Structure formats: C-alpha cells, structure tokens
Amino acid sequence: MMTDTNHIALARSLAPVIRFCDNEPFLPSHVGITVHDKPQRSPSAPMDVTFEDGVHRVIEYAIWWDWDIQHLYELEHVWLKLDADDQVIGVDASAHGKLFAMRRADGSLPLEAGRVTLYSEPGKHAFHAEAKPIHDLAPRLAAACTDLAGYGTILVQKMFAEAFAGFTAEDHRAVKRYLQDRAFWPAEGFDQAVRLEEATYMTWPELKTYIASRVPQVLAEVRKVQPLLKAVFLDSGDTMVDEGTEIHDEDGNVAEARLIPGARETVERLAAEGYRLVLVADGRKKSFDTVLGHHGIRQLLAAEVISEVVGCSKPDPLMFSTALDAIGLGPEDAADVVMVGNHLGRDINGANRAGLISIWLDWSPRRHKIPEDIDEVPDYIIRTPGELPKLLDYIEQGLSKRATSGTLRAAMEKTVSTRASA
C-alpha cells in the first residue's frame, strides 16, 4: 500500500466519470487515493482489494460527498485495476456497503470515450455499470429520496466514532429536518456527468483527517440555518397520567396512578429524538414527583413548572412564561414551542394566548370538547399520545417554510379564523 504525488497524478489522469440523475442535488467534492501493489484490506472501507490475473496494481478512490439524501456524509469507492502498462483492465465499485465488479450486461467494461464511466443511484450514490439496474430500483430509490429523506441522520461509522462522539440527539434531528426539506423525486435521465478528475485529490489519510473536521463543520452550518422546535410543553393529568386511576393519600396528594396507554413510550421517544420536554401542569409538586417519578418520566424532563410552586394555574400567562424562562427562552421563542394538553380552557387557551403552538389531546371524557371561544380552538388535535411524534415531525418540517412564507403564527391565526367562521 503506497501513495505519493506521482500516484495521485496517475489516479487523476485515469479518474472515472460519474453520471448522476439530472436533478441529483449532491455531488462529490473530495477524493482520497490509495495505490495497492498487492491484495490487502482497504484502509477506507471494510472490503478486500483483490488482484486477478494480469492486475499489476489497483488505484482505490475513496469518494467523498457532504451529503447522501438520507444522512450527513457519504463515502463511496471505486477500484481501478491496472495492468503493467497502467491500462484499466477491471473496475470494482461500492454499493450499499458491498463491493461489486463493474461490468455491463454484455460483459464489457463500462467505458465511454476510453474513460471508465459509472452511474450513481439518485440520492444514495451507490455505483452501477449502466443505468438499467438503477431504473429497476426506481420505487425503492424514490422512497429513499422522498418519504425516507433524512432518516439516517448523521452517519457515524466506526472509524469516526471518537471524532463524532459529541453529537447530540438534537443534532441528528436537525440533519434529518435539513434533508427532509431537500427531498426530491429522482429524474430518469443521467445526463449530469461529473469528471472526477476535477475534484480535490489527496491521500486517504489526508481525506480521513479532512472528514473528521468537515462533518462537524457541516453540522454547525446546518444548526445555523435549520429551525427546530425549541421545546415541547406537556400537561400531566389526562395527557400523560390517567386521572381516572388516581389514588390519593390522606393529605390529598396523588400517591398512585396509571399512565395513558402509549404515554411513556411517546415521552421516551421524544426525549431520544432530542426534544426538550417541560412539564407544565396544575397540581401539587409531591403528586408529580411521586407519579411521574414512579413511571420514569421525571428524568426525561428538562424542567418542571407546577402551579403549586408558581402560585397560579393555567391559563394564567405566568405559567407559560415561567416555563419558557426555565429553559432559557423568552416570549420571542413562543412560536417555536408546542403545548400539549387535554383541557381546552386551560392548556389550549393558555397556549394560544401565550403565542405557543397548541395541541389538544382529545382522549379524556372528563373535560368539555367544544371550544367556548376562539382562544380554545387548538392548532392541532390528536386522539392518543402515540400520534404526537408524527405530528411534531410534521410541525417541525413546516418551520423551514416560515422564513419564506410569513410567520407560522400568522398562518395559524388564519386557520383558526377559518375554523371559527366555518
């Protein structure tokens, strides 16, 4: 295994052409070169570099993209197999973590005008010797580039695990939203041809060092531009806890209660996805300590705002301003915060008046279900806790559009007015 400036010059002179679909948004920028003079393990991929009869040496191209449609960063590979005169006599390339020989259906090498030319899957970038196999995968690739965009978040491979150890669940969610906003329907044509020789070339160790610094840099750029929900405020009674199962002690505190089906799983999922969860509830602190602590929910909360401690109950604006302040937010952040509750008169009324996004959980039979005024009209309605993650996904994707289509709050107010007049 060896690589020097002469090898890089040779690799550039033989560099493949890569054909992308006509509307592919992500193109490669850097290439790390390794030249192999014998069969051995690739230094940049978990694959073996093989030498068949007549192969004198192999040039390994580790090809870097900042983006795959499903995750931050992409590394694919091409191996050009050369004879003693440095003529290409074989080509291998990567596809979804595996190595494949690149041959057309008729058995010929994928050459165009004497240059190895490969086809790249839309969004996913896996290599093929011709377009037909990609067309055969069209339904799967369309799903990857649309409904499943962003679902790989930040790719953390073993070789970069230490460098990327500091990434948070919120970082991963920001990348997911960024890619969801860039979802596309793949075009059928592959006329977008990229001459790989025009990329930035370096040795593989140099590219590995570059990747370790580049991914945090790209993430920082994403975090500057990608809006996220800043918090999720949660009521407790008949939102997480089934009030119908409450058992009180002699002092009137809730000593025991069951959760609504799906509540704990929902809270755990939201916490795992990096949402900041804040309890905003009316009642006694000891009751919440006991019940939410018993069910393992308290440790998932970023803050707790309880009426007994604050000195007022919802819909008093102080409950919501205290909750914002508890996690370092102010009134200007309210439009990026959701309030989930079961009570139209307290949770929804208070959230709407505070400028929050209001979500009514219509699960309990114990509260009125018809809004008494415009402030009790929720922005969204769910029937079970399990519907909340998907709704938050939808709301958060919509935040990106706010910058170009007016404020989210204005759009909501228009929706509320429409509902009221209907």
From TrEMBL:
Q: Tell me the InterPro entries matching this sequence.
A: HAD-like_hydrolase (IPR051400), HAD-like_sf (IPR036412), HAD_sf (IPR023214)
- Would you say which domain of life the source belongs to? Bacteria
Q: Name one Pfam family in it.
A: Hydrolase
GO molecular function ontology, one term from the record: hydrolase activity
Q: Which UniProt keywords apply?
A: Hydrolase, Magnesium
Return the PANTHER family for the record. Answer: N-ACYLNEURAMINATE-9-PHOSPHATASE
Would you tell me the protein name for this molecule? Hydrolase of the HAD superfamily
Q: What is the lineage of its organism?
A: Bacteria, Pseudomonadati, Pseudomonadota, Alphaproteobacteria, Hyphomicrobiales
